[in-house]
5'-3' exoribonuclease D
Amino acid sequence: MGIAGFFLWLQRWYGDCVDYVPQDVVDAAFKGHALPQSYTSAYSYDNFYVDMNGLIHPCCHDTAPLPEPETEEEMFERMFGQLDLLVRVVRPKKCLVLCIDGVAPRSKMNQQRSRRFRAADERLESDAISNACADLIVAELRLPRPRVRERWDHNVITPSTAFMERVALALEWFIMKKLNEDAEWRHLTVIFSDAHVPGEGEHKIMQYIRGLRSQPGYDSETTHVIHGMDADLICLGLSTHEKHVCILRNQLTDTFQPDHNRFCYFNLRTYREKLMKDFGNIAGMEFERVVDDFIFLCFFVGNDFLPHVPLVSIKTRGIEMLLDHYVRDFALHGYLTQLGEVDYAHLRTFLGNFVAKCMPKLTCEYYGVLRAKERAKQHVEERVTKTESLVPELLATLRPDGSNAQDVSDALLGLLSSVRKERARLVVDTQPLGFSYLDQSYRDAYYHHKFGWDPVMNRVAFENQICLCCAEYLRGMQWVMRYYTKGCPSWEWYFPYHYAPLLQDLAAFAATVDVEMRMSAPLHPVEQLLAVLPRLSVHALPEELHGAVNDPTSVLGKFYPSVVDVDFSEANFSYQGVLRIPFINCEALSTACRGLVELEEDFGSTFLYCHRSSRLAAQLDALTGPGNRALPLATGLAPSVAPIPVSIASKTPIAGRVGRYEAEWLRGEELRCPDPGIAKATGYGGAIKENHVNQYRYELNTQADYRPVLLGGEKRGRGAAAEKAKRPTAKTPSGKPGKDSSGAGPAATTERRPSRNDGRRQKKRARLLLQQLIAGGGQGATEEAAQKQHHAASHAPSSEQQSMHEGNTHHGGRSSPPDSKDTSSRARAKEKEKEGRDAAKREERKSVKVSIDVSSQRHSQRPHGGEE
């Protein structure tokens, strides 16, 4: 979910970053035809990453242009078809990475728990409306009772349910089927991480990319495409600090549902260029640090782990004001983050100035939003009234003999139910317009209503509670920043309140924030299932746990209330209300699940698949050993896996460790679909006559450091180097190499990184040539020498390039230290160079005035007594 309305905001302000996939391309991909040349030449990518939950959810709902599927097999058919379509549209050249959400951090579980409780209430409400409409049709219209279809519980899209086990097995079969039988897949390395592996899908993808970047020899020109519908993918993509990243999304319909057949790219390279212009007024800007600060500021507008700060939202133009203030007052507050860590002193200065200057504007915008909410409700009423007017038209289609009575009755049920459900979504706003966010009375009322703290009974305790809330919220901001840039910093931490503190209190908080967090371990999948599912979804739990949920006197009984308290005070629609349900207790969870957890496996493995005809298959077989040795699924019981050497990782986009695994898909054998339902009801159920796909157990590199730099100066592939060489190096007024369009630093013009001594050698050659030409006499020779000298000096690496190389040599370990022979030879070279300079100076004093540009800065040489 991420930031509500963020992508629509980006479309409005940065529309030229959005590239819509032409419909003829999608149609050709859907039919299996060749794509237009104009598209394939413009859009070419190495790696394709799919956040599978963003694909699974729409395939299980009624999304355009398809109705709601009636069976799980129909859902699987849609998943297969959508994934196949995406791969045909993107056409990845190297790697396909598929990640399903596993056990989430505790801070995310609270949001998942709230959503699933809300979904259960909506399902009850929907069933009640459908039954009421059916009774109305029978009683008043004298039609047969319409068929009320039992609603499928979407809460089963949760790790460790029987449905997600089927999803994992179905997708594994689909991968084997495509790699064996589809020539367009055969070159791909496929990595599949299912719900048995802890972590959210999009963050598994980020972990994979960070692992790639940490490999020696990583090609910085690698192109990445990430598919997903969550708005926070934009910020996650920026956090990679990669040059070539695109986000692929399904376009939205008029009702804001994803369309299965329409796609668009959001180009983060273009967006980075736009951000560079937006922040261009910052003197001495370190652009990659500014990108990190931009990501951090977006957290104030919304994220999945903390409740959003009151008043600051997309609708109140909060993000625009935050960014404008950041640029305007940068000299006062400086950078807000460094290497993924929050600088709280700078943040305090930033928030203090922001509250003083921008709160009145935010308040005005908020009141405008309230008025817009009322207008939006009027539009909904108009739409509902228009839908109701279709009832007479539908009744007019009833035949005199009543042969279509059942069909008319079913259609009427859908129409009337939609009307009532639309009205049920509307809520009455209880927030009085007279309150001001700048008044002390509103501050007291806010904390009293939202948190239950009484300012009258004990003012000291009231203020202390606010301080504790602010400290935990600011600590949470650090947790989120680390999560986005480095991976999960703590599986057990969560924000223990349903609401955020007011912005002015965050700005006024002056105490030290404790940012130390215990890493701990993720909850067991069964524990997480019990933590997030409501009582109405108890059927998705193991039978041994039904009693713990249904019995109000059990240790978990109080965490499953029969009536849920919902706060609609800031909501437009019912689904936007805040559910005030108790936070689950982990100790109670462990007690309830103790016996069952001991019997079940903890976590599963990520798997890597490649066709046996590929070079990678031979390399991994040589690495992991011969034979059909099967490894157990449980990570804790598996034999050790071998690190992937640089010789393999530099050619194939994989990083981490790999081990042999053939327990399910034996090589060279006939394979049959393990799910009878899929085999019978889908077009992908046919047997594989002979398996030509190798499967390996794969572990991501979890120790990759956060590198907030653009790796544009590192070694590139041959094609990328040729493309870069075609573009002229940008020059600053001083003649030094300028920054490329992405703000990475000095623009590289060759494939080889400049050596520290390159500049010295070229300067020496130029001086010796100058001496020879001067000794030969003639003004023409002097001018020619000056031109050649200037050419050599302008192509020598600048001091910035040399210092960057020195830093990389020291930290990266890419260059070995010089031995004693090298040192002595350099000393002799320096002596000869000094002698050459002295001779050149003597000749210059006798004959000619020459302007020499050696270090990209002009120094005029005078006829007498001038020095370089």
User: Anything to note?
Assistant: The mean pLDDT is 79. Residues 344-388 form the longest helix (45 residues). The first strand starts at residue 18 and ends at 20. The CA atoms of residues 383 and 389 lie 10 Å apart.
